[in-house]
Specification:
The protein is of the alpha+beta class. Among the domains are: about 75-155, 2,3-Dihydroxybiphenyl 1,2-Dioxygenase, domain 1; about 160-230, Roll (2,3-Dihydroxybiphenyl 1,2-Dioxygenase, domain 1). About 30% of the residues lie in helices and about 20% in strands. The chain is built from six helices and ten strands, in the order αββαβαββαββαβββα. It has helices spanning about 1-15, 35-50, 85-95, 130-135, 180-190, 220-230; strands at about 15-20, 25, 75-80, 100-105, 110-115, 140-145, 170-175, 195, 205-210, 215-220. It has a four-stranded mixed beta sheet with strand order 3-6-5-4, sandwiched between helices. Strands 7-10-9-8 form a four-stranded mixed beta sheet. It has a two-stranded antiparallel sheet with strand order 1-2. A hairpin with a 7-residue loop joins β1 (about 15-20) and β2 (about 25). α1 (about 1-15) packs across α2 (about 35-50). It is globular, with a radius of gyration of 28 Å. About 15% of the residues are buried. Mean pLDDT is about 85; it is low at about 1-25 and about 40-45.
Length: about 230
């Protein structure tokens, strides 16, 4: 493959320039319609070797090293508004195995924040302020926001989950050890499914709903590798 590409490039150089030992190289115009076909193959072969994640394949992607000013940035939280903290805390702790890292109550504005995550809360400082700072230093937490009174309001219709029109936000994702065993357990616990791992074309991934209807993708590393291999 490499040798034929080099030959094509050599042929092109002879077409573009007439060599003389006594005179400088003189360009000879060629029609684009007559350009060697093998050059096109050579260029496309090189392009196909560029990773999909390269800036060459992703217009707008910053191609240099991250700005020094962003050093230390990381994804810290995703916020969900919830209707009833009692129900949501049970789901995220008992069903998904998260811990409550920190609770903040804003009495003047009548709302509370519950930060859920997979960090060990035993590692948190005992001082309330220091524990808040510690919590905001943990990666990938869920911030459950409760506006007081919604749990007892008969007229409250719930929150938009982003998966009905107009669509926007989609879901969060949880990695598990075995997607099929995890979903068998979810079924026993009465969790609502959007998609079970054996449903549809994308075998091996599932979607469940939390108590407020937000979607959560469930997958294991083996399944996600298999499902996405054709798109990688």
């Amino acid at each position: 493959m490499a040798s034929s590409s080099l030959i094509s490039f050599s042929s092109l150089s002879h077409s573009l320039f007439r060599f003389s030992t006594k005179t400088p190289l003189t360009p000879i115009p060629i029609s684009l319609s007559n350009k060697p076909k093998k050059l096109t193959f050579f260029c496309s072969s090189m392009a196909s070797e560029v990773p999909k994640e390269s800036p060459l394949n992703n217009p707008g992607l910053h191609g240099e090293e991250p700005d020094e000013a962003t050093k230390g940035y990381f994804m810290q939280q995703t916020m969900f508004r919830i209707k009833d903290p009692k129900i949501s805390l049970d789901f995220y702790s008992r069903v998904l195995g998260m811990s409550l890292l920190k609770r903040l109550d804003f009495s003047d504005m009548k709302f509370s924040l519950y930060f859920m995550g997979y960090e060990n809360p035993a590692a948190a400082p005992s001082n309330p302020t220091e524990r808040t700072v510690w919590t905001f230093g943990q990666k990938a937490t869920i911030e459950l926001t409760h506006n007081w009174g919604t749990e007892n309001d008969p007229d409250f219709k719930g929150y938009h989950n982003g998966n009905s029109e107009p669509r926007g936000f989609g879901h969060i994702g949880i990695t598990v050890g075995d997607v099929y065993k995890a979903c068998e357990r979810f079924e026993r616990l009465g969790v609502e499914f959007v998609k079970k791992p054996s449903d549809g074309k994308m075998q091996g991934i599932a979607f469940i709903k939390d108590p407020d209807g937000y979607w959560i993708e469930i997958f294991d590393l083996k399944a996600i590798g298999s499902v996405t291999s054709g798109a990688a």
